[in-house]
Write a structure and sequence with these properties.
This protein is of the alpha/beta class. It has one domain: P-loop containing nucleotide triphosphate hydrolases (Rossmann fold, 3-Layer(aba) Sandwich). It has 13 helices and four strands. The longest helix has 15 residues. The relative contact order is 0.17. The structure holds 3'-phosphate-adenosine-5'-phosphate sulfate. 3'-phosphate-adenosine-5'-phosphate sulfate binds next to α2, α7 and α12. Its EC number is 2.8.2.-. Belongs to the sulfotransferase 1 family. Its main location: cytoplasm. InterPro entries: P-loop_NTPase (IPR027417), Sulfotransferase_dom (IPR000863).
Length: about 280
Amino acid sequence: MKEEAGVAFQAQVQVFQAWPNDLLICTFPKLGTTWLSEIVDMIYHDGNVEKCKWNAVFNQVPFLEMNDPNMPNGGSHVILLAKTPSLHLVKTHLPVQLLPVSFWDQDCKVIYVARNPKDVATSSSYFYQMAKMHPDPSTMEEFLQNSTAGKVAYRSWYAHVKDCWEKRQEKRLLYLFYEDMKHVRKIAQFLGKEVAEGMAAKIVHHTSFQEMRKNPADNYKTLPSWMMDHSLLPFLRKGIAGDWKKHFMVTQNKRFNKHYEEQVEGSDLCFHMEI
Ligand code: PPS
């Protein structure tokens, strides 16, 4: 039954009809999707904080694979988007090969965010505790084993980040890194929007970890606790590069480095990550 639902869901996503002006934000989970969504939303609203801060981030930038139980008709975001006849800002965690073909047919712009895999594993292990659609992460050791084996949602971080890196040559695709996300003007330029320096500074401030953490609309607070248990952790948890150092044991780090080297061998994609 679960498999049938998965096939039906995949079919629903695949028939999604993109418009030429749509923007797709594509990432592996925990790479900074919510942060980038807020930045893009502010750029499109000319830095108007009031317009951006009230609506849940997943309404501002609907999540292609999500069903929101607070919405009528099962809350399918694919259906919601189909009913919105204007510019779509869309978020997805799908790997580049599984994106609905209409995004490519319409030559839509895509922004990809990557983040170093050690912080992703750390962030994910916490997220799996609060987000009840995921299995319990168990110990860090077990979670790391599962992560490196691709036995997590959306499978392998390596394939995801590398495949999109290759795609950037042939598509209108901006490849960003979590660690460089404050470069608002670079993002605006890609979107074809003029953003003066003062406006960029305002957007950087409003989308800082401290500001976004205060805003329930950015923290998935409207989701029911059976989906996300906010009593365990806030969605915006730590928001830094290098938090993995507090969580990896020396042996785990060595094993992770070895696996990392094997996986990225031959690719010119480079992460500034301490080893
Ligand atoms: S999800 O669930 O896959 O959509 O999560 P995603 O939004 O991709 O990633 C969540 C992590 O991004 C951090 N985050 C931020 N860091 C810095 N500044 C800002 N403004 C910001 N917003 C979100 C968030 O805290 C998660 O990382 P960790 O390391 O767990 O804190």
